[in-house]
């Protein structure tokens, strides 16, 4: 899992049937201070995130389980919207 910021969205009227009804967002990995640390990737939203939100993201084939399914073609899922990050 990693921290990210939602920086955009994708609208697609034609897509795999498993993606119907799911929001496709563009995210950028961030560090604990909110600074972008990597290139953007596409992720499927499971929690209602929007542009500007800081989120927690999972990667790999296990991402599909965020939707309670095991047959949708995704490699990244947004699984939480971050309220605060505390550093020690």
UniProtKB/TrEMBL annotation:
Localization per Swiss-Prot or TrEMBL: Bacterial microcompartment
InterPro entries (alphabetical): EutN_CcmL, EutN_CcmL_sf
Main location group: other
GO CC annotations on file: bacterial microcompartment
PROSITE patterns: BMV
Keywords: Bacterial microcompartment
Lineage top rank: taxon: Bacteria
Membrane-spanning segments: none
A Pfam short name: EutN_CcmL
SUPFAM superfamilies on file: EutN/CcmL-like
Name the record gives this protein: Ethanolamine utilization protein EutN
Lineage: Bacteria, Fusobacteriati, Fusobacteriota, Fusobacteriia, Fusobacteriales
């Amino acid at each position: 899992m990693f921290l990210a910021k939602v920086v955009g969205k994708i609208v697609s009227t034609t897509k795999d049937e498993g993606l119907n009804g799911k929001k496709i967002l563009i995210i950028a990995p961030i560090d604990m201070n909110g600074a972008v640390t990597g290139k953007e990737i596409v992720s499927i939203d499971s929690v209602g995130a929007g542009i500007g939100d800081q989120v927690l993201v999972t990667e790999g084939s296990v991402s599909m389980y965020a939707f309670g399914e095991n047959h949708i073609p995704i490699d990244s899922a947004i699984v939480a919207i971050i309220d605060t990050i505390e550093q020690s």
